[in-house]
Specification:
Belongs to the BORCS7 family. Keywords: Lysosome, Membrane. InterPro entries: BORCS7. Pfam families: BORCS7. This protein is an all-alpha fold and 106 residues long. It is 98% helix and 0% strand.
Length: 106
């Protein structure tokens, strides 16, 4: 009978070890899934950061191009002001010439 009791205890021990082992395997599987999700999330974050950096570089280029365009427009504005002043002087001189011509013709 002692042999039967020992075999029965050994069987119960085997079942409890199998149960604990199954729990551990399930727990490890859950942990691996959670770890995989976290790695994928980290990979996505790195991808988003890379995209944000590329967008920032593009925006910086656009800003630099806009600054360059503004400088060129300021130069053009200055030249147009000089031309306007020259035209105004010519108009004034033209009026003076017309007055002089009208006095000469009288």
């Amino acid at each position: 009978m002692a042999a039967g009791g020992a075999a029965d205890a050994q069987a119960r021990f085997g079942h409890s070890v199998k149960g604990l082992l199954t729990e551990k395997v399930t727990s490890c599987g859950t942990d691996v899934i959670a770890l995989t999700k976290q790695v994928l999330k980290g990979s996505r974050s790195a991808e988003l950061l890379g995209q944000a950096a590329r967008n920032m570089v593009m925006q910086e280029d656009a800003i630099l191009h806009s600054e360059d365009s503004l400088r060129k427009m300021a130069i053009i504005t200055t030249h147009l002001q000089y031309q306007q002043e020259a035209i105004q002087k010519n108009v004034e001189q033209s009026s003076n010439l017309q007055d002089q011509l009208s006095h000469l013709l009288k």
